[in-house]
Amino acid sequence: MTRVFRWLTIAHRYLGLVLSIPMLAWVLSGMVMIYVGYPALREDVRLGHLTPLDWDRCCTVADGALADDAVVDRAQVEMLGDRPILRLRAGAIDLASGQRITAVGEDDARLVASSYGTVAAMEMIAYDQWTVAGGFNRDRPLYRVTLAGPDGRQVYVSGTTGKVVQATNRRQRFWNWLGAVPHWIYFADLRRDAALWSQTVVWTSLTGGVLTLTGMIIGIRQFRRRASGRWSPYRGWTYWHHVPGVIFGLFALTWVVSGMLSMNPWGALEGGDATAERAQLRGLHLTGTQLRQALRDLAATRPGGAVSFSAAPFDGALAFIAFAGDGSRTRLDAVGAPTTPAVMDRAAVLLGGGDLQRLDKEDDYYFPHHGEIAPLPAYRLIQPDGRRFYVDPLSGELLGSVDAADRGYRWLYQAPHRLDFTPWLRARPVRDLVMLPLLAGVALSFATGLYLTVRWVRRRWRA
């Protein structure tokens, strides 16, 4: 037993030599992330900067721009500067000329960005720290536009569709260098290689878990009442490493391991994408011919007051969701007349049966987090095998799904990592009162460990 304990101590010491700084950075950056999330442009904010559609110039689609038999799974009509455009999953069409938009020019990008403020500078980029994720790939290259003003705002305009896809300000960028970037090891050149970044996070977390576990074993073994009345045999810095480590070690281990699971290592928590269920709800493979006719009908009806129109097929019928600048929505049928879908009656049938209920408040799997929106009300369908579907009552769109793997991800990563097991734990000030003391305790353990590591290295160096 003495030999095992000795080897555990050696392993803990040398792992600490490598990981003390990353572990402390993880904890401190986690504190920052409670208050400042990674930059993301909210859809309601984006809508607020759009202008109403100019129906006088809409809606022409040339035969060569969209094939009659093309399958369209996403279609959005908005203004790009002074002209209406149709955004598809791949590319965009100028609805004034009817031609494909091969690239968005600087003048258009500047005009789009000017709705957010006075343009001070603009440059074309492939990616940067705030646009490195794969979700921006369809929009590259990007125009990064710096706006005049003291808050250092920047907006990013897609070079392929002219859509504003990201926005940041100086405060967000500063705090994210202390928050999300170190916490996720999210340095742009590393994150650009998704496989390398994923493996870096997984293996750093795994070795960090070993560091924490060996420390817990050592600490618990040494934590016992002695004849002197003391529970710890250590003094000074070592005492302040030992006691917080014993008290908060389990939380540290939970956060490190759950952080590793966030990367879904080796496909352990790979959930389904519900592609088949989305198609069942739509019940329609929208073709180029159908979309072209629907746009002509919309232009003839000229529905007013909206800044964006998105195709929303449901149960085999084409419809559009019209968005106003304040984010409010109206459902229009294929010829532009307001309509109400029978989502409540049809969703359960289309998805294969189950218990369908109207959801007016969040549940264990459907709730907002760090700017992620969970629209309410929604319809929740729970099937006999436990699978859940969340459906938008206006559009009939599938908002989310939860299968067995997703449940594992929720309870093995999200809940233990964020300690958001219940709604009251997600609400302030309870969240702050729970998270901050725990994070401070773990930070104390890692900070004293870092100091002891530096002291040990200095002694060995001098020897």
TrEMBL record:
Domain of life: Bacteria
Matches recorded under InterPro entries: PepSY-ass_TM
Residue ranges crossing the lipid bilayer per the database entry: 12-38, 196-218, 239-257, 433-454
Sections of the chain in a coiled coil: none
Keyword Membrane annotated: yes
Keyword vocabulary terms for this entry: Membrane, Transmembrane, Transmembrane helix
Protein name: PepSY-associated transmembrane protein
